[in-house]
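Researcher: We plan to redesign the surface later, but first we want a full-length starting point. Tokens attached.
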């Protein structure tokens, strides 16, 4: 168990993300819930993770699956009660697992008491909690668009004003320039800290300081000022772990977010490596094949850029991204081996690794009928592109490849009906491959993806070089190999991956002869020609190259 009173403990930690709706149902209504999560804590403890990032469980109309919060201090009845939350916190903490709450502070739900008040009149004390502009019904203040499609301005006839929303109209943006808003938020965070949470994931945190009149959504001029204030007023100086979601961060900005002086957040969660297979400047639905050389370049840039002066999250998946084994691996013949290769590549780097529920058993994307999809972003895109005359087949192909529901199908626990997720009809269809891809089966099989993840997690705890080593890329121009060293003053690692379904020519560098094999997905010491999707990590002890 990690000593969580030690500052920076989260550098050696592995964090597991739970999407509560799809993790485990306990009361037979087809929807995952808090007691369901509590009932699976032993499984997570065995996996070896140190913290859970819990996607939102707060009261919410569920327009965006809980990312539209109507009461930050209440549990949505769908997920259980405050008592269930307290039990989860107690049981998790007893197992050395911290619970990180997912705070959506950029916007609230339009059903939040603040917004209901704000809409009543321009003079209402809550009016200025949101962002309003005068206008006429058919001329929004400007051209700004919502992330989920359409204009970012919603007209309220009673007030003769528009309000600003970067996401759905039911997710009005909070006005962080109003000190009263910030105070309310800090008070709420302190309240949760007293309940024993281990930290927070901060949703789209780089968008809080927007300046709609200037078209600014991310990285607004007051962003870091507000973050430092948030820190000082709440978790600053505590061992809590905080992670900021920031689509707009580059390395320089990431150094501010995750400044080792602890003035803002513990770490950043940025996506520069996850947008390489989309057409530059276009939407995520407009895909191009991944160029491995580019992936190496971007990951190297971040590994080197933050070394000693910031901290990154390592991830391939979350609730907004398609399944990695389907995306950049092979979810057919090489599913198991390619899932392990992708895990090796990620967990060998510097940063805090995240495992998204089901990733540890190699869960895959789904292909559903359009009527079975639930995600607001997917459904809006379908409607918009349909209206523009884009062929059905083309739209569905991008949903299969990119839709957020790929990650949101129920967790596959066993081969029983509905995969052991629920006894009722699940809120979202279970992937039909659950009879062969599930936790029960993975626990039995010593060669499963799950056992491989357990080993990777254990290794990170055993050797400090995983957290501390300096990254050094090798075979830079090789179109199939992704190979890098991690160098420290005491130990070195060599991470070797064949990122392709073809055998790949490879020569073990001279100075790595005789190293120890820590892990391999084909059970061999890699010296020459690598097999399809082969991956391994070698260790040199007492031979620090730094
Ligand atoms: C973040 C969340 C996503 C949500 C959006 C709006 O990107 O991860 O699921 O839709 O913010 O809150
Ligand atoms: Ca339930």
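Model: Full-length starting sequence:
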């Amino acid at each position: 168990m990690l000593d969580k009173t030690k500052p920076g403990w989260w550098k050696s930690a592995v964090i597991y993300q739970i999407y509560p709706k799809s993790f485990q149902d306990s009361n037979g209504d087809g929807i995952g819930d808090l007691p369901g999560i509590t009932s699976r804590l032993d499984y997570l403890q065995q996996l070896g993770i140190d913290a859970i990032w819990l996607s939102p469980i707060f009261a919410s109309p569920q327009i965006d699956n809980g990312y539209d919060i109507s009461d930050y201090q209440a549990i949505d009845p769908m997920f259980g009660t405050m008592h269930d939350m307290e039990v989860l916190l107690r049981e998790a903490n007893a197992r050395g697992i911290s619970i990180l709450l997912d705070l959506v502070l950029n916007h609230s739900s339009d059903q939040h008491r603040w917004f209901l008040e704000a809409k009543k009149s321009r003079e209402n004390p809550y009016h200025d909690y949101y962002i309003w502009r005068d206008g006429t019904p058919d001329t929004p203040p400007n051209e700004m668009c919502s992330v989920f499609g359409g204009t970012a301005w919603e007209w309220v006839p009673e007030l003769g004003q528009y309000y600003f929303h970067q996401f759905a109209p039911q997710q009005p943006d909070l006005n962080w320039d109003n000190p009263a808003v910030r105070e309310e938020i800090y008070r709420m965070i302190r309240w949760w800290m007293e309940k024993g949470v281990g930290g927070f994931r901060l949703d789209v945190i780089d968008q809080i300081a927007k300046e709609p009149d200037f078209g600014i959504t991310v990285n607004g001029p007051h962003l870091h000022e507000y973050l430092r204030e948030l820190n000082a007023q709440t978790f600053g100086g505590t061992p809590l772990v905080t992670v900021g979601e920031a689509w707009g961060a580059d390395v320089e900005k990431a150094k501010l977010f995750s400044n080792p002086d602890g003035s803002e957040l513990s770490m950043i969660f940025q996506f520069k490596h996850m947008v390489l297979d989309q057409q530059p400047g276009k939407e995520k639905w407009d895909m191009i094949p991944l160029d491995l050389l580019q992936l190496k370049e971007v990951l190297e840039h971040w590994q080197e850029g933050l070394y000693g002066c910031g901290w990154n999250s390592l991830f391939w998946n979350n609730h907004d991204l398609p399944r990695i084994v389907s995306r950049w691996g092979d979810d057919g013949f090489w599913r198991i081996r390619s899932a392990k290769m992708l895990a090796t590549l990620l967990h060998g780097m510097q940063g805090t690794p995240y495992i998204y529920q089901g990733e540890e058993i190699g869960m895959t994307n789904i292909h559903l009928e359009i009527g079975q999809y639930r995600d607001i972003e997917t459904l809006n895109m379908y409607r918009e592109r349909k209206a523009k005359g884009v062929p059905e087949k083309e739209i569905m192909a991008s949903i299969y490849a990119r839709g957020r529901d790929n990650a949101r199908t129920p967790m596959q626990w066993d081969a029983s009906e509905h995969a052991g997720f629920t006894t009722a009809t699940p809120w979202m269809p279970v992937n039909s491959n659950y009879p062969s891809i599930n936790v029960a089966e993975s626990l039995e099989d010593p060669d499963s993806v799950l056992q491989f993840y357990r080993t990777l997690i254990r290794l990170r705890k055993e050797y400090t070089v995983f957290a501390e080593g300096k990254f050094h890329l090798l075979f830079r121009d090789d179109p199939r190999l992704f190979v890098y060293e991690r160098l420290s003053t005491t130990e070195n690692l060599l991470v070797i991956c064949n990122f392709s379904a073809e055998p790949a020519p490879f020569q073990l560098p001279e100075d790595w002869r005789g190293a120890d094999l820590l892990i391999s997905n084909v059970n061999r010491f890699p010296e020459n020609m690598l097999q399809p999707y082969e991956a391994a990590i070698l260790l040199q002890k007492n031979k620090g190259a730094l």
